[in-house]
Please model this.
Amino acid sequence: MLVVDDEELYRRAIERILLRGGYRVETAPDAMIIVDRDGTMVIVNEQAVRLFGYSREALIGAHVEMLVPERLRDAHVGHRHAFFSSANVRPMGAGLELCGRRKDGSEFPIEISLSPFETDEGMRVTAAIRDVTDAREAKRKLAAYAARLESTNRDLEQFTHFASHDLQAPVRTIIGFTEILAETLQGRLDEQAQKYFDFIHDGALHMRTLILDLLELSRASRSERVLEEVRVEDVIERSCQQLGPQLTERDVRVEYEALPRVLADATRLQQVFQNLIGNATKFCEADTQPQVTISAEAADDRTWRFAVADNGIGIPAKRLPDVFQAFRRFHDPRRFEGTGIGLAICKKIIEVHGGDIWVESTEGEGTTFFFTLRDADAHDPVEPTA
Model:
């Protein structure tokens, strides 16, 4: 085994080889070992010393197989010979899962990238070695989390089925029989009894609306979708048609100029615009003509940032952090009907499209909702943000 007594001599030897091979071993963040064709370690950096627990003197001149678990050493010799026979760069993590062995005999998972280079003494190979214990553990935890998430999604599907059938059935029964009773007892109830009766009927109707909205939120959360090129102006026109009576009653002005084409599920995107335009109409003072302005600008070369601005009553500043949470209502329910789930649905839809949504508002001066969507020419896969 080669013993290096002169540290400066060793460093000069390193510099000679590094200048020839174009490598920076000592300053590399990974453990770096340079071996010759026989598998002899000729250079090791400080990271390798720390990783394997040997001194530099013990490593230099020894065979690299000393860093491999004993049960794998014979196979490693064969792999090494094969690599030198047709040496090429192998990236980190390529090939089989590998193990390293420390001086104390403990084993740990590693990834290795190999880079051959020629010297006057023959071919050398630089091995960059990385301890991936933490990465493997993180991968294991991620797999376990994914399994739990899949189980949760199955539970959600079961809940959706339950809500769409079992929950709605008794609500329909209550509504149906209260309407029959209303006809049967018309004119026979005193004022107090009629008031209680109306409470029951209105409560059942509200429950049905809550169930339907909850189902819609569940559907909006699902990642299954068909993205296609969508002309946003067409989506807005259909949204306004669906809101026709509401817009006509308040003489709502919906303004927009030329808008881009995006990759989207047109039906889901229509839900977003219907909710935002509908809210702008609803949350506007009675003596003010509601006005909605829709615009878009490029966030980058693949993404558009849309803005839906209104002149409504605005949202209190302290409520803004909670505005996209389901069933949160910030205004008097006696003045403004609804369940408070529309914006939660918008958020889910935009996130399933891989975009973001946020809001800016000043109480008494209106609200602007912003969201991002991909340009129609950006055909890379969408990764939901939530």
About this structure: The first helix runs from residue 7 to 21.
